[in-house]
Amino acid sequence: MKKKLIKIIKKAGKILKKGFYSNKDVTFKAKKDLVTKYDVAVENYLKKYCSKHFKEFNIIAEESDNSKVEFNNSIIIDPIDGTTNFVNGVPHTAISVGVYKNKKPYLAVVYNPILDELYVAKVGKGAFLNGKELKVSTEEDLQKSLLATGFPYTSGSNEDDLNDVLKKIKDVLPHCQDLRRLGSASIDLCMVAKGTFEGYYEMNLKPWDVSAGVLILSEAGGKVTNIKGGEYNLFEDKYIVATNSRIHTELLSKLDI
Question: Collapsing DSSP states into helix, strand and coil, what is residue 232?
Answer without folding.
Answer: coil
